[in-house]
Amino acid sequence: MSSRYRVEYHLKSHRKDEFVEWIKGLLATPFVLHAVSHDVDDLTTTQRVRSQYAEIFKDIEGLVSNKIDFDSRNGQLEENDDSEVKYDLIGKSRLNQLVPSIGSFFTELPLEKAFLWEDSQRGISERRMVAPSFNDVRRILNTAQLFYFADKRKKYHYNQLKLVTFDGDVTLYDDGGSLDYTNPVIPYIVKLLQNDIRVGIVTAAGYDEPSQYERRLEGLIVAVHDSSSLSLEQKHNLTVMGGESNYLFRYYENEDNKFGFRTIEQDEWILSHMTEWDQSDVDQTLDFAEKTLRSLKDRLHLPEETALVRKKRAVGIVPGERYDPVAQRRVHVKLEREQLEEVVLTLQATLETFPPARRIKFSCFDGGSDVWCDIGGKDLGLRVLQNYYSPEDPIRPSQTLHVGDQFAPVGSANDFKARLAGCTLWIASPAETVFFLSRLGFS
Fold this sequence. Notes:
Blueprint: H1 2-10, H2 18-34, H3 43-78, H4 83-90, H5 94-98, H6 111-122, H7 134-156, E1 163-166, H8 186-194, E2 198-202, H9 211-216, H10 218-226, H11 232-235, E3 238-242, E4 247-253, E5 259-264, H12 279-299, E6 307-310, E7 314-318, E8 321-324, E9 329-332, H13 337-352, H14 355-358, E10 362-366, E11 371-375, H15 378-389, E12 400-404, E13 423-426, H16 430-438
Helix pairs in contact: 2-3, 3-6, 6-7, 8-10, 12-13
C-alpha cells in the first residue's frame, strides 16, 4: 500500500515537468523492446539501445532548434503585427504542438552529445531492468546546456556566458545552512568572477539589511576579499538579490579593510514596469495572502506552534518549536509534505483570482519546511541583474545561467520562473552544483 501511495503521489500533475516526462516516454519504447535481454555482456543489444537513445536525443535537438527559430521569427513579428496575424503566419513550432506547456529555449542544446557522455559515465543503455529516469533526463539536459557554453568558448575563443546566478538553500548549501569557508563551491564561484562573469545569489530569503546575507555567505565573501587573483572590479561583480526581486546588495571593500555587502537603492536597479505597481495592490495582496494562510492553518489543523510571518514584501507560514521531553530540548515542528503542498497550491490558486494580485507579480512557493508568498519572482530577479550590470546593453537570457533545485512546474517551486529569463541547470544537491560548475571548464 505504501508503495502504491508513493507512485500515485509522484504522478500528481503539479509535480511533473511535462518536457522531461515526454522525453522519458520517447525513451521507454527502445527500453521495453530490448528489456528481454538480461545478459550483461550482450554488446549487440547495448549498442542497438544506445544508438536508438542517441537518435531520439538527436531528433529532440532538432526540435529545440526549430522552436528557437519559430520563437525568433515570432518575436520579430510581435513588433509590427497583432497576435491574430502573427498566429496565422507562424502557427506553432512542432515542439509546442507535442509539449504544449514547453517554455522558451535561449540556446541550442547538443542533446545527442550530452546523452553519449552521460551514458559513458552512468551506463544508461546498459540497463535492462530500470528505464531511463527523471534524473537521467535532468542530467542530460544539464550536460547539454554546459556543452553549449563550453563549445562556444572553445570554437570561437569567446565566452558567451556573462551572468551566473544561484539559488541558496539546497543549491549552494544544505536547507537552512550557510556558506562557510570549507564549502567546495566557493573556489568555483571565485573562478567565475576571475573570468569576468557576474555572479548573483538570487534567493527567496527576504531581508532588507545586508547583515543577514553576510552571515549566511560569510565563507564566500571572505574568500573573495582574500583572493589575490581577483581585481577590485571583479570582486564588485558579486551581488545578492534578496526576496526574489526585492532587495539588491553588492560586494564592497574599502581602504579600512572593511568588506561585505552594501545596499543598492531601489531607484538604481528597479525595472520600469515594476515602478508601475501600486503600493496599495502590494499591501492588499499580502493582506489577502496572510488571511488565506491563517484560514489554512485552522482548516488543515496545523500545529499551534506554526507561526505566520509578515515582512515588507512577503508573508509566510513557518513551523515553530516545541519542547521535547525525551530529548530535553526544543525541536522544530515538522509540517507534512502534503500539508505544505496543499497550502502553497491553495494560496496560489486563491491569489490568481484576487484583482489586486493580478495587477502585480507574486510568487508562492514551498520552501521544504515552510510556505511563502513573495512580491515579484526570480524571473524579475534575473532581469534586474541583467540590466543592473549592463544598463546600456543588458545581458541577454542566452548569456545567463541560473542554477537551482526547485523547478517543478506549478506553485511549489520558485526557481521555475527563472526559466523565463535565462538558461538553467536543475540540480538536486549542493554536491551536484559543484559537479556541474567543475565541468564549465574555467581555469
